[in-house]
Structure to design on (463 residues):
C-alpha cells in the first residue's frame, strides 16, 4: 500500500476516533475496586483482564502502551460495554431497597476506542521501532440510583461520575528484549451526556436547617474539571520462538495519581443555593504481569497470564463540599489501598481446517479484588466490597481471503484491510456480602449485597 493511502486512512481513523469519543462520557455503575473500571477491551476482559503482559492488540493503549510495539501497520478497534445488575440493601430497621442505574443496562453504553500506528509503516523510514497510539475510554466512573424513600436518602439518592480519559501514547523498542511506553492521561467531562460533570443528590436532613435549607428538600451538587496524569510502562521479552514470537513476557505499568477540582453548583430543590468545590483524588496504580505460552506454533497458541494491581487510594481522604460562602459540608472517606489479582488464559487455533483464513480464540479468566473502603466511611455511592469475578470470551479473526458470515469479505485489496477481528466477552462479578454496623452515618448500617453482569464486544481492523 502506498504512503498516501496510509496517510488517508490514518486521517479517517482519527476523525472516526474523535467522533465516537464524544460518547465516552456515558457513566457506569461501579465496576472495579472502588470506582475503577478494569474492562477496557473484550480480548482482555475475556481473560479476567489479565492482559498487560500480552497486550498484542490496539487495547494495549490502555493495558500496556509498551505492547504497542508488537503491532504493525495501522490498527483501529472500538467497542462497547453493557453492564447490568443490582445492589440489594437490607437496613437495620428491616427495610429492603435496591439500587441500579436507572434501567436494565447503562444507556448509552460506555465505549472504548483505540488507534495505533507503527511509524515506519507510514513511510517514515528513518524512525525505527516507534509506535504511536491514541485512545478514549472510561477508566473511572460510576452511575447509581436509589429510591428517595431509602433509609439512607439523607446520605445519597443518586450519584454519577461520567469521567473519560483521552490517551495519547508513544512506545519504542529499546532493543529486541525491552520495549518502553509513555502516555498522557487527560481526564475530563463532556456536555453531551447528563449534566456533563460529576453529580450527587440526596435529601436534606435536619442539620441543614442551620444554613437555611428546609429539611426534606432535594439537594444536588454538580461540577466538572479537566486534569492530567501520565503512565509509564515496559514490556520485557526474554524468550522467543524461532519465528520471533514471545514465549515469556514480563510487564510493568504505572498510572499516576491526579486530582480533579470539581467546580460547580450546589442546588436546593433545583434552585441555585451557592457555588461549590469538591476535590476528587484518583490513585496511583501499579500493575505487574507475567505471560507464558506453553504452546506456540503455526497451528495454535496457548497463553497463561497472571497480573497483580496495586492501587493506592490513601489520598482519597474526603469529598467535602466547600461552598463559596465558607460553609464546608464534611464527607470524610479515608480510603486505603487495595490489590487486584487477575489470572487468565487464551487458546488460539490458526486457520483450522473447518475455517480457513480464520483465527479462533477461546478465553477464560478469574479476578479477585479487595476493597479500599473501610466500614466507617462506607457509602451508598460506591457500595464496594471484596469480590470474585469469572469471565469467558471468544475471538474471531478473519484474514485476507476470508469472509464474514460466508458473504462479506474481511480484507480486500480495495479496502486495504489486512484482517478484521471480533472479540466478545462475558463477566459475572460476585461481591462478598458486606455487613456495615459502625458507619459514621447510622442510616447506612445494614447488609449490602451486589451482583453485576457485563457483556463486552470489540471490533478491530488492521491495515
Amino acid at each position: 500500500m502506498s504512503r498516501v493511502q496510509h496517510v488517508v486512512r490514518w486521517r479517517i481513523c482519527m476523525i472516526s476516533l474523535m467522533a465516537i469519543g464524544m460518547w465516552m462520557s456515558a457513566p457506569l455503575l461501579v465496576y472495579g475496586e472502588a470506582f475503577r473500571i478494569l474492562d477496557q477491551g473484550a480480548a482482555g476482559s475475556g481473560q479476567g483482564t489479565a492482559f498487560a503482559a500480552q497486550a498484542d492488540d490496539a487495547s494495549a493503549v490502555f493495558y500496556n502502551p509498551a505492547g504497542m510495539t508488537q503491532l504493525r501497520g495501522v490498527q483501529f478497534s472500538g467497542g462497547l460495554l453493557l453492564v447490568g445488575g443490582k445492589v440489594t440493601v437490607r437496613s437495620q430497621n428491616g427495610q429492603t431497597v435496591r439500587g441500579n442505574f436507572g434501567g436494565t443496562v447503562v444507556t448509552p453504553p460506555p465505549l472504548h476506542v483505540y488507534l495505533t500506528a507503527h511509524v515506519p509503516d507510514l513511510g517514515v523510514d528513518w524512525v525505527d521501532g516507534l509506535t504511536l497510539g491514541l485512545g478514549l475510554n472510561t477508566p473511572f466512573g460510576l452511575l447509581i440510583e436509589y429510591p428517595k424513600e431509602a433509609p439512607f436518602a439523607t446520605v445519597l439518592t443518586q450519584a454519577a461520575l461520567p469521567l473519560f480519559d483521552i490517551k495519547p501514547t508513544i512506545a519504542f523498542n529499546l532493543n529486541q528484549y525491552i520495549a518502553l511506553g509513555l502516555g498522557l492521561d487527560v481526564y475530563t467531562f463532556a456536555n453531551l451526556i447528563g449534566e456533563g460533570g460529576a453529580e450527587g443528590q440526596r435529601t436534606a436532613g435536619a442539620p441543614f436547617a442551620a444554613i437555611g435549607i428546609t429539611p426534606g428538600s432535594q439537594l444536588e451538587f454538580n461540577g466538572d474539571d479537566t486534569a492530567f496524569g501520565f503512565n509509564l510502562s515496559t514490556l520485557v521479552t526474554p524468550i522467543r520462538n524461532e519465528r520471533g514470537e514471545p514465549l515469556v513476557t514480563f510487564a510493568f505499568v504505572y498510572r499516576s495519581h491526579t486530582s480533579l477540582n470539581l467546580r460547580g453548583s450546589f442546588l436546593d430543590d433545583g434552585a441555585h443555593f451557592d457555588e461549590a468545590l469538591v476535590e476528587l483524588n484518583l490513585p496511583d496504580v501499579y500493575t505487574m504481569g507475567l505471560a507464558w505460552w506453553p504452546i506456540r506454533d503455526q497451528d495454535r497458541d496457548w497463553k497463561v497470564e497472571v497480573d497483580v494491581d496495586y492501587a493506592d487510594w490513601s489520598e482519597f481522604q474526603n469529598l467535602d463540599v466547600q461552598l463559596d460562602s465558607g460553609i464546608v459540608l464534611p464527607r470524610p472517606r479515608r480510603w486505603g489501598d487495595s490489590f487486584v489479582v487477575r489470572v487468565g488464559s487464551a487458546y488460539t487455533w490458526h486457520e483450522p481446517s473447518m475455517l480457513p483464513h480464520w483465527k479462533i480464540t477461546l478465553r477464560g479468566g478469574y479476578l479477585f479484588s479487595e476493597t479500599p473502603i473501610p466500614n466507617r466511611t462506607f457509602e451508598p455511592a460506591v457500595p464496594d466490597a471484596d469480590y470474585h469475578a469469572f469471565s469467558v470470551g471468544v475471538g474471531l479473526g478473519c484474514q485476507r481471503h476470508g469472509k464474514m458470515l460466508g458473504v462479506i469479505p474481511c480484507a480486500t485489496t480495495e479496502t486495504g484491510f489486512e484482517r478484521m477481528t471480533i472479540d466478545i466477552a462475558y463477566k459475572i462479578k460476585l461481591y462478598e456480602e458486606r455487613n456495615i454496623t459502625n458507619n459514621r452515618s447510622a442510616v447506612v448500617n445494614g447488609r449490602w449485597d451486589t451482583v453485576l453482569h457485563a457483556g463486552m464486544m470489540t471490533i478491530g481492523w488492521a491495515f
Summary: Helices lie at 3-21, 42-45, 60-63. The longest helix spans residues 3-21.
